[in-house]
């Protein structure tokens, strides 16, 4: 099994930027070696270059792009040296791999990078991956390493992604201030778009009143118990853990959650190719609410949800957990392989049950959409369920500006993404032919009527089923 482990800046560099948290880095490297001994292959996606550079130079995190690139160059060398030393102490070998936006934008570069990963892993070398901030311009950056980890997982056909951070899980509310908060133990791939939307909007909601979420989320202590404990007059809000007023407040919130993970809903119990069942497993108490990352991190729970959607859509289970718990990863992987349960640490986002994508469609999922094509309900269902070729008659509108062969998101009437595709027409042309039949294309576009479809099925990667 291939496993991607992402460790964030806030986990590697102290909040005040004065020192490196060597215990976390060493734990991650030791975990990679333990996984290798068990027959697995590991890729580490690391943040921390800018933070390390600022620490070496004795300055706060800059805002100027050139200064950020300079700090990344200084810190990148120091960070690589620490990883190399840690692997030497554990008897392993590692290699630095720096990727850019264009690595994923070009199909040829994508394939070339994949070959390099395959070769390194075949030789028993652990790739240490980061974005090449020194040459990445602001307009063409991947931006955060949660997304980078998901894109790397897509590239190397990984089956598990661990996003290590200073947040121990996704919660129904802030456990530092709401004693009814419960850790979300498992989330089905199908509800991630709705979960992301509600999290971004900061909306409060009762899981019982949101069918699109209630049927696909498992809570610590069982779904019914968690809902009942919230009280008739309160609503649960999806939130990441925030700093508690005191250590006791966070611990109390976690301790009240109960010791066992309740039975997951039928949707969560469905299995993927390497899991037998997702319904069981003892869940640990949430513990004290962690401290936020402060000035050093570029991600947040929003980027982790976005990364989880990318990774799970390509068949990789994704787990958000505290970096301090990295020593548990080898046991978690063993449990998942053996029984499909794990130990219930953090929040697991279950992979899509679609067959794992290969080649062109897998590459498509890593492309940054330059616009959106809005479909009617019938066309959205045909694309989502059958990966059908999209014709102009099924299009209601277009958003953004893009050209021929650009990547776009195909969205349903509610604005939810159902697929990513390469288009045969520009945004201007699609706006002109939207809702029309193919026999009208010549009269509408004249010599520019180069194809009968907006996009063909081989250029469509389904991101979400509607049923």
Automatic annotation (TrEMBL):
Residue span(s) of domain PUA: 371-454
GO biological process terms, semicolon-separated: amino acid biosynthetic process
Question: Does the UniProt entry include the keyword Repeat?
Answer: no
Q: Which PROSITE patterns match?
A: GLUTAMATE_5_KINASE (PS00902), PUA (PS50890)
UniProt-listed CDD domains: AAK_G5K_ProB, PUA_G5K
One Pfam family from the record? PUA
Can you list the GO cellular component terms from the UniProt entry?
A: cytosol
| Keywords from the UniProt entry | Amino-acid biosynthesis, ATP-binding, Cytoplasm, Kinase, Nucleotide-binding, Proline biosynthesis, Transferase
Ranges of compositional bias, category Low complexity: 280-289
Which residues does the annotated region (Disordered) include?
A: 260-295
NCBIfam families tied to this protein: proB (TIGR01027)
HAMAP family referenced in this protein's UniProt entry, alphabetically: ProB
| PANTHER family given in the database record | GLUTAMATE 5-KINASE
The protein here is known as: PUA domain-containing protein
User: What is the protein's species of origin?
Assistant: Cafeteria roenbergensis
